[in-house]
Design brief:
Length: about 425
């Protein structure tokens, strides 16, 4: 018994350390946020009905697209912060503080110009929105989006799990709580969109003190800004691909099909977001974890294995439920009005799973300094959208054919990424064997 005690203590300590790792904490937090977002969609899909919920889905999609593309900034910042020792971060964080302030001011100054462009372009009619005010309300969140991304990037680079969890959960709570109050008060969809804007501001506010106040004389931001811009470009392309793959179908449906189909796609998109955003945080953690391990000369295999295991669990649950219980899932989550979309659920869920794998592989390659994965994902996404347009715009175009193209395209991208991974592994093996 005495000889087993140290082993048991070490095993228990290992379990505790694993449970407290940033990957586990952020994974659990992101899925708690997912539950809140799921509740939001369950409530408003029933209260609004397919057509009005379709309008809300378009607004949410644009909001997620904006935050997703700016997520490239968060990834670039986290990469840069993680690559530096604590002693070297001071000057970089001072530069980031100035960039953060300049972005905030510049975006406020740009709002009138963007608003006039929306007005001149009749953006509400182009998006087939029932209210002309929704996009103008959403504009109020824009000045906070870039600073929010920069601050979350700093927190991720430091692997500051507590601040990331706090920001994400405050954002979710404000969005859900204020939206319910607004709708029940009879203020309509416009007030719900106002609540969405407030949630972004709340997520930013709890991180606002993460960077130091810019010093006088000011630190030269040009070296950091140039480095950040170059580092953000591949991540930006990856985020654009994410928006195109996961949200492109709702825009295509809005343009080529009817309001009912748009409502169905809005409901189906919920499952895509459950899958992807349940695991998106894994990519956010994977990048700085690998960069820090490489900087310190440590192995990152255990971190990669943990991320892969969590991805496998979530994907298996989503696919199993989507295959066996599609009607029940749609009824429970968005209501019986959307049951007609049940045959498409497995296609959408599978496409989201494969894209999530593709996204993580591309992130893994980026952490190694290889941009080939991003190139494959971006090129494949462009081809996918082109094929979807051809299919849905045809006289016999249908929702099912468009979603099938989506899944097939993502599988093809995955095969190319696997070939890229294997080619690198094989070349490293050959180099080790050579005398």
């Amino acid at each position: 018994m005495m000889t087993l005690a140290p082993f048991k203590d070490a095993r228990f300590a290992g379990i505790v350390a694993l449970s407290a790792s940033p990957a586990i904490i952020l994974f659990l937090s992101s899925n708690f946020v997912n539950v809140g977002n799921l509740a939001f969609n369950m409530i408003f899909s029933r209260w609004m009905g397919p057509e009005l919920f379709g309008d809300l889905a378009v607004v949410l999609t644009i909001k997620l697209a904006l935050l997703g593309i700016l997520g490239a900034l968060a990834s670039a910042v986290s990469h840069q912060i993680a690559a530096l020792d604590a002693a070297d971060r001071g000057r970089t964080e001072q530069a980031l503080a100035r960039i953060n302030r300049l972005a905030f001011v510049a975006l406020w100054l740009a709002l009138p110009v963007v608003g006039l462009a929306f007005l001149a372009g009749s953006i509400d009619r182009r998006l087939d929105l029932g209210s002309p005010y929704l996009m103008f309300i959403l504009l109020g969140s824009v000045p906070f989006c870039a600073p929010l991304s920069i601050l979350r990037g700093v927190a991720l680079g430091r692997l500051d799990s507590a601040r990331i969890v706090y920001s994400a959960n405050i954002e979710m709570a404000v969005r859900l709580g204020c939206s319910v109050i607004a709708w029940q008060s009879g203020l309509g969809i416009e007030a719900v969109v106002c609540a969405i804007v407030l949630s972004i501001i709340a997520g930013w506010a709890v991180l606002a003190d993460l960077l130091p106040s810019p010093k006088v004389p000011a630190v030269d931001i040009r070296p950091v800004a140039v480095t950040l811009g170059l580092a953000a470009l591949p991540f930006a392309l990856l985020q654009v691909s994410q928006v195109a793959v996961l949200d492109g179908d709702i825009f295509l449906t809005t343009h080529y099909l009817g309001d009912t189909e748009t409502g169905y796609v809005a409901a189906l998109s919920l499952f895509q977001r459950i899958q992807f955003f349940a695991c998106f945080t894994l990519a956010s953690v994977l990048l700085p974890t690998m960069v820090i391990a490489i900087r310190e000369g440590r192995s990152y295999r255990s971190g990669v294995a943990l991320v892969g295991g969590l991805l496998a669990v979530v994907s298996a649950v989503v696919l199993t439920l989507s295959w066996l219980l599609p009607e029940l899932l749609l009824t429970i989550l968005v209501g019986p009005d959307y049951v007609a979309a049940a045959p498409y659920l497995i296609w959408v869920a599978a496409a989201a799973v494969v894209f999530t794998v593709n996204y993580l592989i591309a992130t893994f390659l980026m952490a190694q300094g290889r941009r080939s994965g991003v190139a494959i994902v971006v090129a494949g996404s462009v081809i996918q959208i082109g094929l979807m347009v051809v299919v849905v715009s045809a006289p016999t175009g249908a929702l099912g054919a468009m979603l099938a193209i989506k899944l097939i395209s993502q599988i093809a991208i995955l095969l190319l990424l696997i070939i890229e991974l294997l080619s690198k592994t094989n070349s490293e093996t050959l180099n080790k064997v050579r005398p």
